[in-house]
Amino acid sequence: MNVMGIIFANDATMGELTSKRTMASLPFAGRYRQVDFHLSNMAHAGIRHVGIISRHSYQSLMNHIGSGEEWGLELEEAGLEFLTPFAMSTSASYRGKLENLYYAINFLHYGPEDELVVMADSAVLANLDLNKILAAHVASGKELTIVTKAGICNGEKQIDLALKLGENGAIADMAVDYVAAADYVASMDLFIMSKAWLMEQVKEHVAHNMYHMDRDLVMGLWQRNPESINIYEFEGIAMFNESVEEYFYNSLSLIKKEVRRDLFAGAHPVYTKVRDRVPTYYGENCDIEDCIIADGCMLDGEVENSILFRQVTVCEGAEVEDCIIMNDSVIGEGAKLKYVILDKNVTVRPGAKLYGTAKNPIIVKRGEIV
Questions:
Q1: Mean pLDDT of successive 10-residue segments in the chain (370 residues)?
Q2: Beta carbons of 39 and 45 less than 8 angstroms apart
Q3: Contact between residue 104 and residue 83 where contact means Cβ atoms under 8 Å apart
Q4: CA 276 to chain centre
Q5: What is the structure's pLDDT at 136?
Q6: Which pLDDT does position 90 carry in this prediction?
Q7: How far is Cα 50 from Cα 78, in angstroms, rounded to an integer?
Q8: What is the DSSP string of 254-285?
Q9: CA-based angle 213:72:32, to the nearest 5?
Q10: pLDDT of residue 266
Q11: Which of 132, 149, 245, 302 has the most beta carbons within 10 angstroms of its beta carbon?
Q12: Per DSSP, what are the bridge partners of residue 158?
C-alpha cells in the first residue's frame, strides 16, 4: 500500500507558548515535542514520504526534526519535506488548510497516482496504529475516513468538527466550530483519502473560493453524499491540546501511570530527538513526589506533581507544585511556584512567589527573569 503523510504544524496561538514556535514544536512530557506523535505513528506504519506544512515560526520545528533520522526519515525529496506554502503565496491572510494544500500541490504530485494520504494536525496527540486505520479505510470503499474520539464533547468545549452518529454508525449530524453535547464525537483532525481525490477537491474548492477543510470539504461532501464518509472510532487516549488550559491539564495527567502507558508504552514507542545528558542529581534534602523528571536536572528543593524538562535547576528551599518547567530553567532559593509554566531558559529569582490557577496557569516566556 502506497501512503504519504501530511502534518499541519498548526500555527494557532497559545499565548506566549506559541509566540515564537508552532504547535508542532511545543515541548511536551519532559522531552518530546507534539509533532513527535504523528511522525512516530507514520514511521511505524511504514510511511516514508511526509510533508510538514507550516506558515511561520517554524525554525524551532526544523531544529528539532533535523534530518529526520530519529523517525527513519530523510530530509530530501521523496522523504521528509518542510512545506512553507505562504512563502510562495500572494495572499495576505490565512484562509484555511485547503489553501495551504493548494500552494503545496507539487508535493502531492510526487509519487504513485494510487497513493493514499494521511492528514494529521499537531494539536491532537495520540499513539495509534495507522495500519489498522488505513486497512479500515480501504475496506470501507469510501472517499474519506475521519478518525473520531468519544468523550471530548462536553457541552462546553468548542469542537472544530463534531459528529453525531446513529445506531448503525452512520453520521446523523455534523457541525463545525460547535459547542457540541456529550452525545457527539469529536474529529481528531486525522483524515485518510486518496491522493488523486484530494488533489481534485483542493483545486475545485480553491477555484470556488472555499478554503476551510472541515466546513467546505468535509461537511460539503457529507451534505452531497453522506454515504461517502467512513468513521473510525479511536478508543485509546487522545489529548486535544488546543488551549493553554488543555495543554496544562493534559501535561500533568501524564503523571498517572495508566495515561503514560497508553501514550508511550507498547509496540509503538514515540520517537524524539536524542539529547544525551548526565543523570539528574537529587540533593540530600530534596523532596520529589509524583513528578516526571528529565535528565540533567539539579534538584535540591521540593517538587510535587510537576513535569521538569532537561537541565532544570531547583535550588534549596524552593517549592514547586503543579508546574511545567521547561529546559534550562533555574528556580532560585526559597522561591515558590504553583500552577506555573516556565518556558525555556527562565530564571526565577530567590524568594520570588508565582501562583496561578489550574484553569489559568501563569506563563513565563522564554529567557525571562522574574
A1: 92 82 95 96 94 89 92 79 69 78 90 91 96 98 98 97 92 97 98 97 97 97 96 96 96 96 86 91 97 97 98 98 98 98 98 97 97
A2: no
A3: yes
A4: 24
A5: 98
A6: 47
A7: 8
A8: TTSHHHHHHHH-SSSPPP------PPPEE-TT
A9: 70
A10: 67
A11: 149
A12: 179
Q: Residue 242 in contact with residue 18, Cβ under 8 Å? A: no
C-alpha cell at 275: 539529547
Residue 164, number of CB atoms within 10 A of its CB? 15
- Residue 302 near residue 283 (C-beta atoms within 8 A): no
As a three-state string, the secondary structure of the chain is CCEEEEEECCCCCECECCCCCCCCCCEECCCEECHHHHHHHHHHCCCCEEEEECCCCCHHHHHHHCCCHHHCCCECCCCEEEECHHHCCCCCCCCCHHHHHHHCHHHHHCCCCCCEEEEEECCEECCCCHHHHHHHHHHHCCCEEEEEECCCCCCCCEEEEEEEECCCCCEEEEEEEEECCCCCEEEEEEEEEEHHHHHHHHHHHHHCCCCCHHHHHHHHHHHHCHHHEEEEEECCCCEECCCHHHHHHHHHHCCCHHHHHHHHCCCCCCCCCCCCCCCCEECCCCEEECCEECCCCEECCEEECCEECCCCEECCCCEEEEEEECCCCEECCCCEEEEEEECCCCEECCCCEEECCCCCCEEECCCCEC
For residues 36 and 32, give the distance between their C-alpha atoms in angstroms, rounded to a whole number. Answer: 7
For residue 263, the model assigns a pLDDT of 94
pLDDT at 167: 82
Alpha-carbon span 325 to 106, nearest angstrom: 41
In the chain, the amino acid numbered 49 is H
**Cα–Cα distance for residue pair 48/36, rounded to 1 Å:** 15
Amino acid symbol at 147: V
Q: Which helix (H) or strand (E) holds 331?
A: strand 330-331
Return d(Cα 271, Cα 8) in angstroms, integer.
18
Look at the alpha carbons of 66, 69, 73, 78 in this order and tell me if their dihedral is positive or negative.
positive
Written as nine digits, the cell of 80 is 521528509
Residues 6+ apart with CB under 8 A from 39: 7, 50, 65, 68, 71, 73, 271
